[in-house]
Design brief:
Elements: E1 4-19, E2 41-47, H1 52-65, E3 69-74, H2 78-86, E4 92-95, H3 101-110, E5 114-129, H4 140-148, H5 154-157, E6 167-171, H6 176-184, E7 194-196, H7 199-208, E8 212-215
Parallel strand pairs: 2-3, 2-4, 6-7, 6-8
Antiparallel strand pairs: 1-4, 1-5, 5-8
Helix pairs in contact: 2-3
Amino acid sequence: MKRWQTLGGTLIGVSLVLGACGGASQQSSDQGDTKSSNVEGTVKGNGSSTVAPIIEKLNEDFSSSHDKATVENVTSGTGDGFKQFIAGKTDFSNASRPIKDEEKEQLKDKGIDYTEFKVARDGLTIAVNKDNDFLKEISLEDLKKIYSGEAKKWSDVDSDYPDKPIKVFSPDQSHGTYDFFTEEVMDDVDIQAEKNQNTDVIVKSVQDNKEGIGFF
């Protein structure tokens, strides 16, 4: 059963940032990259939940050839992933946005070399409750009104809309999606919404609130 409906979306790049050194070591082997490969150890990563399915697939393929090596991946958000990477606690970072200039400088100061790979393009979705029968499309200007707090009721967006409070939901600052929305929609104006790190919670909030709107 459909519990929410999408109004539209846009594409953003998702990246994988690899450090120059990892926790796994490789010894010489006459057998090459086989199940008995001498690559061993643990490689740790953190970052965007958007990239997690890609990492899981890569890990499956890698593990099939390197049974002595382990890849651990945590999804605490793009921002937190970069913090862990800069602190030297992880070997790779998943990101739903490009690495920021200040993050590049911090890595340089730490002496951490890295390589950035663009691995996919992701869609940012604006969603409302399935019982919302009046909003079929929305402009960037109206999105900014809603997420800045200027429009507090749907009738503030359009006088033909219900005179009911808007329930506004968004990812928190740990997400690259939050950064993208802030820059591209909000023109760096602060987002006024109920924020959550867990995307599933945002989806559930839109499902449970007839006047809800969210992005993820």
